[in-house]
């Protein structure tokens, strides 16, 4: 059942265009605002807006056992994991960046262009990861309740930004909810790209609990797709553009293949009976 859920999720994620329609139908802000209007204090709001729905889904999923009820579990799982993902249309995102590269002129500031390219690659790697990979990982570990818990924690933390926090531990929770699946994602990057260079990043980061997740993911993705002809070393605009465009195509392919890699992980867990 978990394999089918992950397979449907990846197919949906890769082919749907536009925003997540389930999120548009049932906005998270509406739920958090409703809870916030009835309870004061971050601790109570966290309990009722995050913990309570997670426990309800957990208890319901435990009850859906057996062949017949298992179909209801599948429907519940598919609905929740599809709701939990943010759709990042990599085709549009990468095409826009390539068009931007092709519009550059020889008189443009190369240093700024190189930094813009780095910033784009960094952001797109982390955005794609954060939008779907933790949802898949925690679903495989804990079922639909795991995916929902990640989503609710993430959005609850975002709503606290800029305000006084009673829940200082929430940053740590979200960090670890991303840290664990990020290491498995780096392993997939190594298997799909330059294994030696990327595996070294994984080995260096396996006990690293200080570096932000986005930084480690970007470094690993860069090692997986960028060889010695790094576009950041080129001093002529047209050479920089040609190499940067090639790197973007490789990076896009890496991110897309890594999503299918998680389908493989789900299949492996199914074979092992986990």
- In round numbers, the mean pLDDT is 88
Structural class: mainly alpha
* First-residue to last-residue Cα separation: 11 Å
Q: In total, how many domains does the architecture comprise?
A: 1
Radius of gyration: 20 Å
Approximate helicity band: over 70%
Shape: globular
SS field, number of helical segments: 12
Largest sheet composition = none
Approximate strand percentage = under 5%
Q: List low-confidence stretches.
A: none
What is the string of helix and strand elements? HHHHHHHHHHHH
Structure description:
The chain is mainly α and 274 residues long. It has one domain (2-271). It is built from twelve helices and no strands. The model has no long low-confidence stretch (mean pLDDT 88).
What key attributes describe this structure?
12 helices; 78% helix; 274 residues
SSE diagram, text form:
Layout: H1 2-15, H2 21-25, H3 28-38, H4 42-63, H5 67-84, H6 90-102, H7 110-142, H8 144-160, H9 170-192, H10 195-205, H11 213-225, H12 237-271
Helix pairs in contact: 1-5, 1-7, 1-12, 4-8, 5-8, 6-12, 7-8, 7-9, 7-11, 7-12, 8-9, 9-10, 9-11, 9-12, 10-11, 11-12
